[in-house]
Write a structure and sequence with these properties.
The protein has 203 residues and is an all-beta fold. It has strands at 2-4, 11-14, 20-23, 34-43, 46-52, 59-61, 71-80, 87-89, 93-96, 100-102, 106-107, 118-123, 125-133, 139-146, 156-161, 174-184, 189-198. The strands form 4 sheets. Strands 1, 4, 5, 7, 8 and 9 form a 6-stranded mixed β-sheet that branches. The protein is rod-shaped, with a radius of gyration of 25 Å.
């Protein structure tokens, strides 16, 4: 039912809100023309079709954002006007969503359950290797975190540091330096560094 005639022009991009956008040239391999195009999304082993009844429309933008998967695969099928002819499939395009991080710059480990820990928020994050140093460069603590398998691509919080050193002693109020290596769900590494202020809420 399908013949594989490649749309070499099939291109795609991920928009800022993580929706997907595709565009391709019109397929001209049928004498009677194209009746419609069908966009197929493949992610996590499941497929979903998005029919397009306008043969002149060669642009597709997803109306939904599915953050369970960092990588999404698309292909397009051209449906002929003439009955009895096979549909023609494009090649595939892989779209990869970028991992995202929200990193605060201060916390107050005073036990009042409000901003008690240095907490990072991430999307499509799999592992974190974190190192914290005092202002003179002396190591304070090393932390390794693995995200739950079920977390998928939803934003999740990681409690990175409770303000204590490797011996369990609460560090004094000060500014601390951190370096980190994040790995996303596709295995890509993201190197980041910065400072975090450990504040005394009583002052």
């Amino acid at each position: 039912e399908f013949r594989r005639v490649l749309f070499r022009s099939l291109k795609g991009t991920v928009l800022k809100d993580n929706r997907d956008s595709l565009h391709w040239n019109r397929y001209r391999g049928y004498d009677g023309g194209v009746a419609s195009y069908v966009v197929t999304r493949i992610q996590g082993g499941a497929t979903k079709d998005f029919p397009n009844s306008d043969p002149s429309d060669t642009v597709f933008t997803s109306t939904e954002t599915d953050n369970r998967f960092q990588e999404v695969i698309y292909r397009v099928a051209a449906v002929p006007v003439q009955a009895g002819l096979a549909k023609s499939l494009s090649d595939t395009v892989r779209l990869k969503r970028k991992a995202r991080l929200i990193i605060p710059n201060a916390f107050t480990p005073d036990g009042n359950s409000i901003n008690d820990t240095f907490k990072i928020y991430g999307q499509f994050i799999k592992t974190i290797d974190f190192r914290i140093f005092d202002r003179w460069g002396k190591p304070v603590k090393e932390i390794s975190i693995v995200a739950p398998v079920t977390s998928g691509g939803n934003f999740q919080s990681f409690e990175v540091w409770d303000g204590k050193n490797s011996d369990g002693v609460l560090m004094p109020a000060s500014s601390y330096v951190w370096t980190a290596v994040f790995k996303d769900l596709l295995g890509n590494g993201l190197n980041r560094n910065g400072t975090i202020a450990l504040l005394d809420s009583k002052k």
